[in-house]
Hints:
Blueprint: E1 56-63, E2 68-73, E3 80-85, E4 88-93, E5 98-103, E6 109-114, E7 120-125, E8 131-135, E9 140-145, E10 152-157, E11 164-169, E12 172-173, E13 176-177, E14 180-185, E15 192-196, E16 203-208, E17 214-219, E18 223-228, E19 234-239, E20 245-250, E21 256-261, E22 265-270, E23 276-281, E24 287-292, E25 298-302, E26 307-310, E27 317-321, E28 330-333, E29 339-343, E30 349-353, E31 359-363, E32 370-376, E33 383-388, E34 393-397, E35 402-407, E36 414-420, E37 429-434, E38 438-443, E39 448-454, E40 462-465, E41 471-475, E42 480-485, E43 490-496, E44 501-506, E45 513-518, E46 521-526, E47 532-538, E48 542-547, E49 553-558, E50 561-566, E51 572-577, E52 582-587, E53 598-603, E54 607-612, E55 617-623, E56 629-634, E57 640-645, E58 650-656
Antiparallel strand pairs: 1-58, 2-3, 3-4, 4-5, 6-7, 7-8, 8-9, 10-11, 11-14, 12-13, 14-15, 16-17, 17-18, 18-19, 20-21, 21-22, 22-23, 24-25, 25-26, 26-27, 28-29, 29-30, 30-31, 32-33, 33-34, 34-35, 36-37, 37-38, 38-39, 40-41, 41-42, 42-43, 44-45, 45-46, 46-47, 48-49, 49-50, 50-51, 52-53, 53-54, ...
Amino acid sequence: MRRARFLLGVLLLLLGCAGRPSPGPTPAGATVSPWPTPEPTATALPQATDQGMAFQVEEVGSYGKGWVTCLALAPGGRPLLAVGSVAGVYLYDVAAREEVGHLETRSVVWSLAFSPDGARLAVGTWGSPGVQVWEVEAGRQQQAISGYEGGVFGLAFSPDGAVLAAAGCARWTESGCAGGGAGLWSPADGRMLASLEGHTDWVVDVAFSPDGQTLATASQDGSVRLWEVATGALRGVLEVPGAAVRSVAFSPDGIFLAAGAGDGTVRLWKAATGETVQVLTAHRGAVNQVAFSPGGTMASAGDDGLVRIWEVPSGRAIRNLSGHTWAVPALAFSPDGEFLVSASWDGTLRGWDVASGRELWSIGGHLANVTGLAFVGGGDTPLLALGLADGSIRLLDPGTVREVRALYGHTGAVRGLAFFPGGPDAPSYLASASEDHTVRLWEPAGWQVRQTLVGHADQVPGVAVSPDGVWVASGSRDGTIRLWEVATGREVRKIYASGAVYDIAFVPGGGASLASASEAGVHLWDGTSGRLLREVRGNAVAQAVAFSSDGRVLASGGAGQIEIWDVETGRMLRTMLRQVNLLDLAFSPGAHHGSPLLLASAWQDGLVVLWDVETGRELARLSGSPYGAFALAFSPDGRMLAAGYWEGTVRLWRIRW
C-alpha cells in the first residue's frame, strides 16, 4: 500500500503519494490556485484566420511522465511495479526495467495498493470517483468508489482482499481540507462497510495488521488511531506531539507499529499496548514513508533524499541508501525482501540491494515541475532546454523528443531560461535563473558553466539576454533588476522595481532597454543607466512580459487578462480576457507568408491559447494538461511551440499556415 501525504506549497503543491515531501515549487509570483482543475480540458480545434489563411496546429510529441507521487510492487514475486504520478499510473517490468503499461486515470494519483493476489490495483485519485479499482492484466477499470473527492491519500487491502481501506479529504478550500477521514469498502461492489470518525484533520495513510483485525490510520492531526475492522470501533490513539503523521506501517509479525512524521522522526510502538519502543531521529526533514520488509527490517524515506534501513526493535541504523538528489516520497520492498524500490522528485526510480545497499538500477523520465523553457542552438536542429524544479536543466532533441543531456549546478528550481545564439561581440550561451538566487551562463560547447552571477537576495524568476548578447538582465523577488556584463560577469547596474520582479524582456534592437513585470506593474527601463523610461501599467501585479520580434508591440498580463501595448506611444491597443490566471507569454519570432502576429499564452488551467494580436482573436486552444502551463517557447523559425507543465511534462506542437 502506498499513499500520498500532503502539504500546500506557497501557492501550489507538489505532492508525493507515498510520502509528503516539502511543497513543490510554483513559478515565482504566479497567482496560481493551490489546486488545479481535476478534469482535463478539451482541445478546441484551430480556426481559420480573418485573412482566410489555413491555420493548423498539430501536436508532434510529448516528454515526461509526471512527477512521482507513489508506488507499489505486486505481491507474489511478480516483477511488476506500479508508479503513481500526476499523469496516471505507469506499470514497469522490474526485471526488464521497461514500461509495460499505462492506466489513464484522468486525475492525479495519490495512492496505490495491489490486492493480495496481485490481480487488482486500487488507485486513489483526486475528484470523483476517489478510488478506482483496475484489473491489472486487462488494464481495465473494474470498480469506481466515490468518497474523499479532495484526494484519496491512503489505500490498503486487507490480507484476505475482502476489504479496502481508504483515507483522504472530503474537499479542498482556500484554507485547506474541509472534512475528511477514513473508511472501509467492499472492493467487489464498492459498498461502504464502515466510516471511521475521530481524527480532527485529514487522514493521509492507512495500514492493516497482518491478521487483518486492526486498521491503523495516520493523520495530519498528529495521531495514529487503531480501529477494529469488524466493527469500526476505536481501539486506541497514539500521539506524535507537535508533528503531522505522514506514514504508518505494521511489522510483518504484527508486534510493532511504525509511523513517519513531519518533524523527521520515526516512532516505533508495541501495537498491542501502545508502548513507545523507539523515537528515531531519522531524516533531515520530513519522513514521507516507512515500510517493513518481510523479514522485519524497516526502511524510511525522507525529504533529505535518503532512504535509511533500520534494525527493529533496537532502532540501530544499518545503512543509508544515497543517490537521489531530491526528496524521496515513496518506497517499497520486494515480496522477498531482497531489494527495495524508491522514487524521487529528481525524476528517477531506483532499485537497491537491501543486503549491501548497492544501487541495482535506475529508471528516469518522471520529471519535476517544468518551470522554464528555451530553444537553444541554431539552424534546423535546435535543442529544447527544460528548466526543472529539481534544479536541473534537461536538453531534449525536439525531433525525437528524447533527452540528450542533463545539466546540474543550480541548488534551487530553475525558473527562467534565455539563449543567445551568438554574434559579432559575444559567443553563444544559455542563461539560467534559479530559486537559489543565482544566474548561470552555460557554454554550448561542452555545456560547462561559464559564469555564475551572484548578487540577488531572493529567487530569480526572470532572465533575459540583450539582442547583441553583451548583457544579461535578471529580475528577482528581492525587488531588483540587475544588469550583468557577460564578458566579465560584473554587475553594472541595479534597478529597484518597488516589488518582486517576475519576468523581464529586452526590447529587440533596443540595446539595453528592457521591460519588467512585477508586483508594481509593467515598466520600461534603460538598463545601463537604470532610468525609468515609462510606467506602462501601474498598481496591478503583472506576471509576464514579451516583445514582438520587431520590438513594436509589448504584451503583458497577470490575473485573467493580457494587455497589448504600442511600445513607441505607450498606448494600450487591446485586452484579451480569460477567467483564470496567466503564467507565461511568448511571441512567435516572425510572421510567415503574411500570417498575423502570433502570441502564445500559458494559463493556470493548463490551456495554451494562441492569439492573433492584431485582432485579439483566439486562433486555437491547446490542451496538454488539466494543470498549470508554466512555460512557453517558440523555435527560432516560429514553426514549433513548446509548453511546460506543472505536472512534469512538455508538449510540442507544429504550427502551419
